Every structure is written in C-alpha cells, then in structure tokens.
Amino acid sequence: MKHCPICRTPYTESAIIFCTKDGTLLVSGPLPGFDTQPTTLRLPPSGMPRDFASLQEAKPSIRDACKASFGIRILSNKGLAFFGSDDSVVSLAEASDYKKLRRLRIILMDPKSGWINRGLMALRQYESLADFKKELRASHDIAEFAMKKFARSLGLHRSGIKYHVVEPYFRMLITDEVAFVSSYAENPTTQVRDLPVFVFPNQTGSLYRAFKRHFNDVWHNHSKEGGYLKETIEAEISAGGILIAV
Length: 246
Known about the structure:
The chain is of the alpha+beta class. The chain contains five helices and eleven strands; from the N terminus they run E-E-E-E-H-E-E-H-H-E-E-E-E-H-E-H. The protein starts with a strand and ends in an 8-residue tail after the last helix.
C-alpha cells in the first residue's frame, strides 16, 4: 500500500508512482495515524503538544519556534495572521528578537488564481468574490510593505513574498525544527482563524519533510515574485551579481 504524504490519499495499485491529485511522489506504508505501531510517532520538542485548538492558542509556541530559527517558511492565503502587523505571529514589533533569522519566505494566494471562484465563496458563505479579492490585495500590500521593513532591518537574504495559483490545501508555517499546519479541508463554516493547528517536528516518522517539500515545490514551480522580491533580484542583477535560486 502507498499514500500521498501531502493529501493523504491511499493507493493500492503498484503501478502508480505519483499522486494523481497533486503530483507528489508516493511513499510506501499505511497512512500516519493508522500505524499499527504508534510508538514510532514522536512528540514535538520541549513537550510541545501535537496540536492546538486554534492559531491563537498556538501563537506563543509558534513565536518561540520562529525566534530560534534560521529560516521561516509561510504558506497561506491572505497571510496577515502569520506576518504583516504587530499582532501577527511573526510580529514587526518584535523584529529585534529574531537574532538568528537569515531567511523569510512567504507564499500567498494570487488574486488571479483560478481557485478563487464562486464555489470557494459558497463554502465560506460570508464573502462575495469581489470582496474576497479586494481583501486579498489589501492584505498583500500590507505584507509587502512589512517584508521590506522586516528584511532590511534584519539584513535577510533571499527572502520575500511570492504568489501561488495552486489549490489551497494547507496553511502552514515551517521553522528549522517544527511545521505548524492547518487544513483548509476542515468544516467550511469554521472561520480560518479558528482552524486547529497540527504540529510536526523535524524528526524521523514525522510529515515535516513532506510539508517542507510541498512548500519548496510551490515556491520554485507554481508561484511568481512579489514586489519586494523583484526589487532585490533586479538590484543583484544590476550590481553584476549572479542569482542562483536555492
């Protein structure tokens, strides 16, 4: 038996190698959570819970993990809950606390994405298509301004915001040691801010690396540069540098 580490779809046909839904390389074995040997699952570091009821509950733990990390990756739709304001998880007011941080990469939903449609609005019921896109653009403007300020104050390299057009499966924040993940597949009547947050430590037997691969795939192959990232790329090229994407 095989399964997709990203969408968790099981496959029994041996001839299928990649997930038919998202193209991810399948892995052998039963789905995590159905393991007949649950002792292979490990708790996150420092006694951190495996999950939180909401982002608000998880925020102190996420902030601590971010401040101890060299790199932070964020995948979201609007993104302001994670970055862009003093109240965000990565808070502008606490920028001086991120002494170890060297790279911050954020992927947000492109307002032109085909996944922004009437079906999505029907699920979320409380927004019209036009209102959602307007709020999305406003959130992106705030995040771009914050990225410029945050990156320059900390001297970050190869950092910035990109905009994706893929199906929004997850909202995630990944540090060097832990992935904090929420699924947009939860009950559609649940407000995004109230989605449970699941914790995946960077350890054997965890889905941490699968989520990190998913982020990297979207960053390199399914998204386009935002304003600040374009500025930094153009600056490096005009200075005669050679830009290598890693």
